[in-house]
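>> received
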Amino acid sequence: MSKNKFPALHNAMWPGLVGKGADSEPPIALDTMLDMTAAAEVDGVRFDGADLFLCSPHTDIDSSDDDLKSLADKLSSRNLVAGSLVAPVWPPTGGGSAIGNEEERGRFLTQVRKSCEIARKLHGLGVRPCGVIRIDSATGIEDWAKDPAANTRKIAATFREAGQIAESFGERLAAEGEICWGGMQSWRRNVELLEMVGMPKTVGFQADMAHTMLFTMGYNAPDDRLLPEDFDWSNGEELAAAYKKMANALRPWTFDFHVAQNDGTVKGQGSHDKTGRHCQVTDPNGRLDVVRDAGAWMRDEMGEKTKAFAHICWDGCMFPNDVMTKQQTWNDILRAMIAVRDAHGWE
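>> returned
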């Protein structure tokens, strides 16, 4: 039996969509993802909720009130709640680049507004007790690198406007740094951007253990690497120290936390650019000590529990469908999540 009750344990629904589609494997239906989440059980402990991607064919950003009532019923019938919501801010999903022209930035902001509206309605339906709205710069490294200083200012301005929208709904935005997002491809760039936005109570960071590990390796940002190019992965203490240094810089900004595993490589699939490769929690090639390294985010520099997250979420994108449709996959993930909560959670 799990020793701690908090934070709540959520599973991510977007792995059923990210990297899927016409140029890859078929998407996995939301009902299937919810069923496997609800069926996962380890020693009587189950997932408490699901974090959602506001994009068809899962949850349409233009969902009607009846659609959202149906979604709420789907969650409630499985004893799940909704948590953090991913705003579809990218051009292929109806959004626009944060460094784009007025029309493109307007599409970005519209998607944030619509996401906040859905968040408010799900809260009103009694199925969303906590969570944030997830965003990123919706632009690639190459476009951002044409004028890094000016483009970072543009991203900050877009995020600031988005933050003002979120505040009007009582929501917070969490920008997920990944090596594929322009202006967010390193730990230092993320801190610089968030400081420039200047809304620390409203616009913060979403930390994914796998993606942020790539920051220590300097992918797409070699000047900010914390591990040597010839790093010996058997040196767990050096990895933990570099990981903590990175987390110490970003933790004060972190609103939302994803437990994940990474094998130290990058992967792209479908329309998704190459980013930190998630691997299964049981993968012997996983570089992280998941329980130990989760503590870099869930404890402060003195080792004290921060209790900063009402829920934590598993994230594992671009897995093959045959892996994702095996119930054992989700049982293994739940077991790891329980171990993280036992080590760093509270009663």
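>> The longest strand covers residues 262-269.
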